[in-house]
Specification:
Oligomer: single chain
Structural class: alpha+beta
Shape: elongated
Radius of gyration: 23 Å
Strand content: 25-35%
Length: 315
């Protein structure tokens, strides 16, 4: 790293910061940067307290202490850069766009995926993306889930889309391939709150809100076809919790094909969870136009449907 890439800053702790945590003092002194970025600097040894490297955010600073900070580029600070990619844009106007995200594409930069994300692609797609939080992304799909996503192109539209989702005025429908034959009613309405799995922090789970943190979650799930070993289902979201369909399908005893995290196994050639966001409907927040958009399931999904002996009828 060259010296040109590093900005050195020095501060003397005054009475306003006396006795506060180091991370809080840093946030006050360089308020134009996020706490996440400052935490990364701490972890990288880029902060000095009285000429000694400081890495513990909880250390209390005192009146007269001298803080030195090397404002370095970090993986996160360099991740919000445009990267030209071939986005499958299903709809676009001056205010918003809808993209058909392929499986395997990460939506937002995060540890392990600081580049090559949908956000990077959006920054290259149109100039205004850099002026909108998260490049206009208002909802997410898991890395290995394919399908439709709304993206705002300006801040007013982003706020309006977020409000639409909060009011549940956006219709989001998914297709999923799951294990075991479908039994019982063709339509099953699942109303079961979801929170972090207390036994495995990497997973979500249906939880008892009296004992664990979580939020209400509702999904309407209907069977489109079934065999003796698998089923093809249609899922309508009423809420948008993390891993909602995957968790609710597991609750019904039908883990998704190839969804290893929730007990699924590979079948029909599927190497990722068999979940596709295939329909999106909402009223355009600026023009008032009713939009209903669709995206054909990708090749791996359709091939698995055929191999598993199921029938897919887009009508």
């Amino acid at each position: 790293m060259s010296l040109a890439e590093v900005e050195l800053r020095s501060f003397t702790v005054d009475m306003a910061q006396h006795g506060v945590r180091l991370d809080k003092a840093l946030a006050d002194l360089v308020s134009e940067f996020s706490r996440s970025y400052l935490q990364q600097l701490l972890e990288q040894g880029a902060v000095q307290l009285n000429q000694k490297t400081a890495t513990k955010a909880s250390v209390k600073v005192k009146l007269g202490d001298v803080l030195g900070i090397e404002m370095r580029p970090t993986a996160q600070s360099q991740s919000f850069k445009p990267e030209v990619m071939d986005l499958d844009v299903v709809y676009e106007d001056a205010h918003l766009l809808v993209v058909n995200k392929p499986a395997g594409l990460v939506v937002h930069p995060a540890p392990g995926n600081w580049s090559g994300t949908l956000l990077n692609g959006l920054l290259a797609h149109h100039a205004g993306a850099a002026m909108v939080p998260r490049a206009g992304i208002v909802h997410r799909l898991d890395k290995d889930t394919s399908g439709l996503m709304m993206v705002a192109k300006d801040r007013p539209t982003m706020d309006a889309l977020v409000a639409l989702i909060a009011r549940r005025d956006v219709s989001r429908r998914y297709l999923a391939l799951a294990h075991k034959p479908w039994k019982g009613a063709e339509l099953q309405k699942v109303d079961a709150p979801i929170g972090r799995d207390p036994r495995n922090r990497l997973r979500m789970a249906v939880v008892d809100l009296a004992q664990h943190a979580g939020k209400e979650a509702r999904t309407d799930i209907s069977c489109w076809d079934t065999t003796a070993e698998h089923c093809l289902v249609h899922c309508k979201l009423h809420t948008g919790r993390t891993h909602q369909i995957r968790v609710h399908m597991l609750l019904l005893g039908h883990p998704l094909v190839a969804d290893v995290l929730y007990g699924g196994a590979q079948a029909g050639g599927m190497l990722r969870q068999a979940l596709h966001a295939f329909r999106l409907a909402f009223v355009h927040p600026v023009t008032g136009e009713s939009l209903e958009l669709a995206a054909q399931p990708p090749a791996d999904f359709l091939a698995a449907v055929e191999q598993l002996g199921l029938r897919y009828n887009p009508q």
